[in-house]
Fold:
Amino acid sequence: MTQRPSPLHVLLVEDHAPTLAVATLALRAAHHVVRTATTLAGAHPLIAAHGRLDVCVLDLGLPDGDGLALLPLLKRRAPPVAVVVLSVQDDPPRILAALASGADGYLLKDDMGLQLVEAIQHAADGGMPMTREVATLVRHNLQNAARVAEPCPLTAAERDVLAGFARGLSYETVGEEMGISINTVRTYVRSVHTKLHVQTKTAAVLRALRAGWIPAPPPRDP
Structure:
């Protein structure tokens, strides 16, 4: 019998009541522990609390400000919280800004469906979940951007790790593909952060894609 994944502790920050209700129901039906907030002010004490927090599902347009303002707080926790943006905003600059700021994934509300449950598990496992439309927008934007002519400071192994993340692979799967342990993958990631002066693997992947140090991933099948 297939073993059910361990329940995740999820913070859902969303001010649209129907979306909040549907998302909460879906996550609790998957046996995850869910706490909710509808504003930045309401989310702050939940993030600051000392209890376990694995994933935050974050809306951007909150009544008292931009949801991205919560990213530094979420990433400063130990361990850092995986963040999946759930938004109606589908313009590439906004998506890229969210990812560059440290979001681990980006889902459009229109495409939420069952993808939300899969996405939070993927993010908790170290992946970069995106709906197909978002992944296509990001890919096209990066392909059309002017590439920066600068020497690559990364080793071949570090580039391979980032290329795996760009394809949506988790730490574990990247390690399996490269024939190395998950701890070695984490060591490469820490080295990349230092070399590129970034705080998250998502920001590192975007930097490498823009500079042409790793290939743009192919679009996924629906």
User: Anything to note?
Assistant: The radius of gyration is 17 Å. The first strand starts at residue 9 and ends at 13.
